[in-house]
Amino acid sequence: MKHLFCRRTEFLEAARWYESQRRNLGHEFIAEIDRCVALAAAQPQVYASVYKGVRCITAERFPYSVYFRVEVRRIVVLAVFHGSRDPSNWQSRA
C-alpha cells in the first residue's frame, strides 16, 4: 500500500532539531518514522482508530506518533506528532 504525507514540514523540522542535538540523530529519527509508516502501510487495520477513523502507530525510539487515515489503496499520514503536544492540533486535520 502506498502512502502520502501531509504536513511533511513539521516532520522535517523535528528531524532538523534532532540533528542539531547530535550528529546523525536526525537521520535516525527519519528512519524510525519511515519504519512506522511502512508498518502502517503494510497492515493498517492492525492499528487502532483513535479519532474519527484516524489510526495511530507510536515510534519506539522517539516520543512521536504517526497519525494516518486509510484510503482505498494508500494511507494518508496526517501528522507526525510529539506525545507532549495538544492532540487538538492534529485532530483538526481529520
UniProtKB/TrEMBL annotation:
Entry keywords, A to Z: Toxin-antitoxin system
Protein name: Recombinase
InterPro entries: RelE/ParE_toxin, RelE/ParE_toxin_dom_sf
Source taxonomy: Bacteria, Pseudomonadati, Pseudomonadota, Gammaproteobacteria, Chromatiales
Pfam families: ParE_toxin
